[in-house]
Amino acid sequence: MTVIRKTILEAETIPRVEIDFMNNTHFEEVEMVKQLGKLITAYQETDSHSDTEEQKLSQSLQEWLEHTIAHFERENQLMQETGFPAYEIHSNEHEIALNQMKAGIRSWEQDKEIELIADYVFTHWPEWFNTHVNSMDMMTAKFAIMNGFSEI
Ligand SMILES: [Fe+2]
Ligand SMILES: [Fe+2]
Predict the structure, then answer these.
(1) What is the distance in A from the centroid of ligand 1 to the CA of 50?
(2) Running along the chain, 152 residues long, what does each successive block of 10 average in pLDDT?
(3) 117 Cα to the center of ligand 2, angstroms
């Protein structure tokens, strides 16, 4: 069995931006991925799998996808409201990430290849998320605040 290194992000250590609703969405997402990671690890550690186990995993992936769609839409909306100049670049990163997530989930639904979805959840996504929050989200929040955006 190949052992992959698993990156599990923690709410306390992910980069913070200057807008609370964005941070809260990020924290929620990290928690969701942690729960999903537990399901994946449990699946990897046993040889026979029930339909219920697979359904739970599928459901967890689906909830994550829905959360991500809302997350990206809200940020895109913030960029439009505040006239963020790099809207195209940021929203394009969202679109690419969303398509990759959809492709990963589709492939899981078709083949139930646990190692593929594990690689996405434990390697690809954490890297993407950290980099994206640290660059695009950070700049978007800073720009919005500087241009008068207020959460109150
Ligand atoms: Fe974000
Ligand atoms: Fe973003």
Answers:
(1) 35
(2) 80 96 98 97 92 96 98 98 98 98 98 96 97 98 96 83
(3) 22
- Residues at Cβ < 5 Å from ligand 2 ion: 75, 136-137
Residue-range domains of the chain with CATH: 20-44+51-146 (1.20.120.50)
Residues 75 and 137 sit within 8 Å (Cβ to Cβ) = yes
Element (H, E) at 124: none
Q: How far does residue 117's CA lie from ligand 1's centre (Å)? A: 22
Of 101, 33, 86, nearest in space to 25 by CA: 33
Output the pTM of the full model. 0.94
45-87, pLDDT tens digit by residue? 998 888 999 999 999 999 999 999 999 999 999 999 999 999 9
